[in-house]
Amino acid sequence: MTTTTTAEYEHALAAFRGLAIGDALGMPTQSMSLDQIRADHGVIDGFVDAGPHQRIAHGMPAASITDDTEQAVLVAQLLVQGGGRLDPVDFAEALIAWERTMAAKGSLDLLGPSTKTAVQRILDGVPASEAGSTGTTNGAAMRITPVGIATPLSGRVETGTDGVTALVDAVQDASRVTHDTGLGIAGASAIAAAVSAGIDGATRYEALDVAIAAARIGATRGHWVAGASIAERTEWARGHLATVPADQRIDVVSGLIGTSVSSQESVVAALALVALDLDPWQTVCTAASIGGDTDTIAAMAGAVLGAVHGAASWSDDAVHRVETVNDLHLDELTEQLLALRAAAAR
């Protein structure tokens, strides 16, 4: 019988916490230009309040999370309730309820463009299984970490190397409602695979290799939509960014790799930053400083770094602050996801 090890738990919890920490670091800079970020904050080097140019998270205090973490927690809860499967209708209904709750609070941190379109289609009577046929943005990737925690790469080898195909199956199942396109699935598969590999003990380099392999498989799934290959762009970006002087990296990520909500920009940006092999905290702070979809890029990078490096990734102070400010309880949820992982690996 397969059981969860202490190392697996440590790395899985660090992945979930890394997602929240990266998200909170990027909260005050999300959807802002480099000029606006530099005017309000300079370069992010810790948790800060939302500044004067911040519109989506206006007035939010330092260390507050955004929809990235909230929806990842939602996915985790639904996976546990579903015994490892994310029911499409339940997920659609949960997303609708989540946005209504946020809107009632007066929040502008609502559903992203692909998810919003899919939810509206469901409200219009389109079956949940067909609603995500146009979703290409990073909404699936931003909340996919629980699937990476719950799904092993080893022990479920089907047609893909080291069980990558089985993991992409799980990602597609979890993404179908909102992002059932090759681009959406490829981006989410890359993040989930890197997280799962890290929990299995992979190095950064190995986790990125698995991420690229998963993105290639994911690109063949769902509905075809034109867009650059996430796998090929990640392969290029991980090599190119390493040649860029440190003081130019933020400008290069922003201007060349891209930081928009498009999966082929933001997912690639997150993985390229991970590939630099810098201190995890420094990496997510850089991600929070690059402009564009900073909260999501930092959240994805944080999840992968936490999975690879474990508890050493994040200071006790950073973990305590994010969990306290947001009343997060990720330890029990992580244990439940790992129970699903152990059951799947039998």
Labels describing this entry:
346 residues; mainly alpha; 17 helices
Task: Please give a quick description of this structure.
The chain has 346 residues and is mainly α.
Tell me what you see in this structure.
This protein is mostly helical and 346 residues long. The protein is 61% helix and 0% strand. The protein has 17 helices and no strands.
Tally of alpha and pi helices: 17
What is the percentage of strand-forming residues? under 5%
> Whole-number radius of gyration?
18 Å
Please estimate the helix content.
55-70%
Overall mean confidence score, pLDDT: 92
N/C terminus separation: 7 Å
Kindly state the number of beta strands: 0
What is the N-to-C succession of helices and strands? HHHHHHHHHHHHHHHHH
Structural class: mainly alpha
Helix-strand blueprint:
Layout: H1 6-26, H2 34-40, H3 67-81, H4 88-104, H5 113-123, H6 139-142, H7 145-150, H8 164-175, H9 182-199, H10 204-218, H11 230-241, H12 249-257, H13 263-275, H14 280-287, H15 294-309, H16 316-326, H17 330-344
Helix pairs in contact: 1-9, 1-15, 1-16, 1-17, 3-4, 3-17, 8-9, 8-10, 9-10, 9-13, 9-15, 10-11, 11-13, 13-14, 13-15, 14-15
